[in-house]
């Protein structure tokens, strides 16, 4: 009978014990392994779904243009919807024809015809050739909301044919989240605290949204380099503003009227009496609905009124409290934008 030595017995025992210990270790840590695996799979899914929601969605739309889809859906929201009114005011309407306006600013031009005539004489109204030659106008209206921060959708925004930005929202330093392309920038004097050169492109259209006669007067003094006006504004507008008059346009107040009376459904007979007025953002969306074949939005929405600390902008710390005396009803506008999303009239690149 063969005798087993101690060394052989130890080796045999080790061979039997090692798999047992390995299985025991795996059993103890299997929940950790499964947890790590689940986190990894979740990260992969999030990355793929994020890319699909932006890039694949956009590439698919590049293949076919949904002509007249926006018009059909907009007619469900906006009574007597039409694309006939021009985007910008024309000199001929105040020089040759002198078209009468039913409303005063910001819903019409009644009472400001003289100053407007002088302003339109040094600006223009035409759409750039690259606008007119587009076979399909895919537009992104970029709001100023905090939810743009760390969104990483800058490259997605740059893919749109037309990118509309608002007020003094900066681009420089935030390119990853908001992109670099700016086709139009809607603003009013108090929000014109941006550098027309560094935060826009050379061919960006600077579109004045006039709320009061002083807004026309401010623009005229800036472009004519006259003595600056310092009174009549709730915030001092820029005294020096390096803009090319050829890039300046005056927004047709028709779109402010539509945003107020038809989108927000404010009483049209009493518009001029109401303190509530549409934000520049809602006016920009309304403009896009009358011009574009595709309208996507990003950076819209405000934190709840209970959230006293959350910033409302991606570039500065201002809370929702600052909107209290602005004359804007952001809750009312949120409902209007939600309705647009439900109708499929606009699509959202961020969350709402």
From TrEMBL:
Residue spans crossing the bilayer: 31-48
Key words of the record: Disulfide bond, Glycoprotein, Glycosyltransferase, Golgi apparatus, Lipid metabolism, Membrane, Signal-anchor, Transferase, Transmembrane, Transmembrane helix
Principal place of residence: Golgi
Cysteine pairings via disulfide bonds: 139-292
Annotated localization: Golgi apparatus membrane; Golgi apparatus, Golgi stack membrane
GO MF term (any one): beta-D-galactosyl-(1->3)-N-acetyl-beta-D-galactosaminide alpha-2,3- sialyltransferase
An annotated GO BP: glycolipid biosynthetic process
A Pfam family reported for this protein in Swiss-Prot or TrEMBL: Glyco_transf_29
InterPro entries: Glyco_trans_29, Glycosyltransferase_29, GT29-like_sf, Sialyl_trans
Residues of the signal peptide: none
Pathway(s) served: Protein modification; protein glycosylation
Gene3D superfamilies associated with the record: Glycosyl transferase family 29
GO cellular component: Golgi cisterna membrane; Golgi membrane
Enzyme Commission number(s) from the entry: 2.4.3.2, 2.4.3.4, 2.4.3.6
Protein's membrane topology: Single-pass type II membrane protein
Reactions the enzyme catalyzes: a ganglioside GA1 (d18:1(4E)) + CMP-N-acetyl-beta-neuraminate = a ganglioside GM1b (d18:1(4E)) + CMP + H(+); a ganglioside GT1c (d18:1(4E)) + CMP-N-acetyl-beta-neuraminate = a ganglioside GQ1c (d18:1(4E)) + CMP + H(+); a beta-D-galactosyl-(1->4)-N-acetyl-beta-D-glucosaminyl derivative + CMP-N-acetyl-beta-neuraminate = an N-acetyl-alpha-neuraminyl-(2->3)-beta-D-galactosyl-(1->4)-N-acetyl-beta-D-glucosaminyl derivative + CMP + H(+); a neolactoside nLc4Cer(d18:1(4E)) + CMP-N-acetyl-beta-neuraminate = a neolactoside IV(3)-alpha-NeuAc-nLc4Cer(d18:1(4E)) + CMP + H(+)
Main enzyme class: transferase
Similarity-based family: Belongs to the glycosyltransferase 29 family.
Name of the protein described by the UniProt record: CMP-N-acetylneuraminate-beta-galactosamide-alpha-2,3-sialyltransferase 4
Organism field: Notechis scutatus (mainland tiger snake)
């Amino acid at each position: 009978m063969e005798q087993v030595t101690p060394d052989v017995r130890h080796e045999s025992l080790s061979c039997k014990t090692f798999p047992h210990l390995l299985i025991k270790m795996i059993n103890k840590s299997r929940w950790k392994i499964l947890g790590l695996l689940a986190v990894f799979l979740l990260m992969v899914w999030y990355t793929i779904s994020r890319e699909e929601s932006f890039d694949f969605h956009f590439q698919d739309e590049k293949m076919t243009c949904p002509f007249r889809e926006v018009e059909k859906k907009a007619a469900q929201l906006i009574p007597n919807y039409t694309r006939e009114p021009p985007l910008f005011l024309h000199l001929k309407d105040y020089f040759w024809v002198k078209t009468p306006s039913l409303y005063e600013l910001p819903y019409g031009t009644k009472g400001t015809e003289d100053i407007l005539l002088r302003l339109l004489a040094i600006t223009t109204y035409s759409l750039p050739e690259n606008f007119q030659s587009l076979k399909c106008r895919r537009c992104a209206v970029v709001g100023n909301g905090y939810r743009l921060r760390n969104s990483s959708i800058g490259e997605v925004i740059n893919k749109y044919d037309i990118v509309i930005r608002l007020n003094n929202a900066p681009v420089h330093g935030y390119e990853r989240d908001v992109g670099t392309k700016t086709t139009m920038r809607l603003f009013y004097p108090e929000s014109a605290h941006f550098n027309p050169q560094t935060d826009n492109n050379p061919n960006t259209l600077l579109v004045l949204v006039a709320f009061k006669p002083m807004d026309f007067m401010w623009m005229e003094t800036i472009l004519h380099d006259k003595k600056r006006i310092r009174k009549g504004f709730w915030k001092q507008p820029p005294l020096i503003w390096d803009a090319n008059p050829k890039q300046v346009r005056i927004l047709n107040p028709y779109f402010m009227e539509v945003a107020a009376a038809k989108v927000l459904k404010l009483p049209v007979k009493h518009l001029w009496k109401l303190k509530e007025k549409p934000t520049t953002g809602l006016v920009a969306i309304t403009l896009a609905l009358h011009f574009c074949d595709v309208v996507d939005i990003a950076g819209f929405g405000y934190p709840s009124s209970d959230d006293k600390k959350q910033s409302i902008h991606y570039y500065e710390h201002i809370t929702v409290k600052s909107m209290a005396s602005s004359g804007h009803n952001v809750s009312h506008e949120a409902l209007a934008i939600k309705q647009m999303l439900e109708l499929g009239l606009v699509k959202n690149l961020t969350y709402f």
